[in-house]
């Protein structure tokens, strides 16, 4: 799903895979003396969450095109971190996701049906 570029650059477990749980696990576990992807992700999510807490609207902060991408990333890493028992990443994702769930949005908004998924318990 998504645009050609979304499909090309999204985290997936391999060619033709529809999920990216293994890829997300590998991202969080990546070990290199000069790069800590897990810490970078936490820093980025923390910066986004801080701005959202200050009242900056999601669309203004991220841009309308990137809102669904960030939302998908947060959902993927929230699920992966729970399975990996990485509660720091899990909490950071959950804290950020609170700002993406807006009950007054309708499916017609072009997003990933945040409010519908939330109501159906798919969040």
Structural commentary:
The chain is mostly helical and 123 residues long. It has one domain. 59% of the residues lie in helices and 0% in strands. It is built from seven helices and no strands. The chain has helices at 4-9, 21-29, 37-53, 58-62, 67-83, 87-97, 114-120. The longest helix is centred in the middle third of the chain and has 17 residues, at 37-53. The radius of gyration is 15 Å and the shape is globular.
Short structural description:
59% of the residues lie in helices and 0% in strands.
Largest sheet: none
Catalogue the unreliable spans.
Answer: 103-123
- As for the number of domains, it is 1
Shape: globular
- Number of helical segments with 4 or more residues: 7
The topology string of helices and strands comes to HHHHHHH
Radius of gyration: 15 Å
Give the end-to-end Cα distance, rounded to a whole number of Å: 18 Å
Instruction: Estimate the helix proportion, in percent.
Output: 55-70%
What portion of the residues fall into strands of 2 or more residues? under 5%
Structural class: mainly alpha
Number of strands: 0
Mean pLDDT rating: 79
InterPro entries: Rv1873-like_sf (IPR036287)
What does the secondary structure layout of this molecule look like, with pairings?
Layout (H helix, E strand, L loop, with lengths): L3 H6 L11 H9 L7 H17 L4 H5 L4 H17 L3 H11 L16 H7 L3
Helix pairs in contact: 2-5, 3-6, 5-6
């Amino acid at each position: 799903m998504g645009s050609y570029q979304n499909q090309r650059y999204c985290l997936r477990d391999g060619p033709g895979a529809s999920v990216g749980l293994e890829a997300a696990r590998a991202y969080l576990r990546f070990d290199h003396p000069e790069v800590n992807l897990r810490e970078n992700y936490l820093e980025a999510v923390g910066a986004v969450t801080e701005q959202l807490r200050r009242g900056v609207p999601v669309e203004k902060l991220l841009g309308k095109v990137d809102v669904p991408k960030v939302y998908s990333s947060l959902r993927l890493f929230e699920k992966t971190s729970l399975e990996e028992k990485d509660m720091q990443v899990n909490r950071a994702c959950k804290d950020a996701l609170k700002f993406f769930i807006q009950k007054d949005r309708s499916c017609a908004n072009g997003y990933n049906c945040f409010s519908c998924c939330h109501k159906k318990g798919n969040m």
